[in-house]
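Record 1 of the preview.
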Amino acid sequence: DWQEAWSITEQLLVAMRDEVRAHNAEFLVVTLSNGIQVHPRREVRNLAMNALEVGDLFYPDYRISDWCKRSSIPVLTLAPILQARAESSQFFYHGFANSGFGTGHWNADGHQLAGKTIAEKVCKMQSTDSSKEQSKAPLEEQDASDKAGEEGKP
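->
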């Protein structure tokens, strides 16, 4: 049943988070997209929602995102980002000329946008971690670090 599936998913995410933290690394959950979620035409997405009898194509993504936030797990939900871009540009991020656009796997442009978005999130997480580490350093170390950085400036 669905409740059991969600419970297992949440338990697995906690286990992964704990394993990653045990190795002093950062854990990030990224939810991906499927073709209909990010179809550039709103009317096509609405037809799919009606056929599936759902009110929101992002329900699973948002459920995972909300749970991750409550569980102090960083999360990036890609589908709404890709959908907004697809709708504004009328561009397909899933599918290929030989198999049909708007279905199946990400195409090269989908991979590029997803990769860029994930990289930006990871960089932001790293810069936040660096700021936290810097603020934990004793004041003398921070002063020495600041002075060393200034020496290389023209």
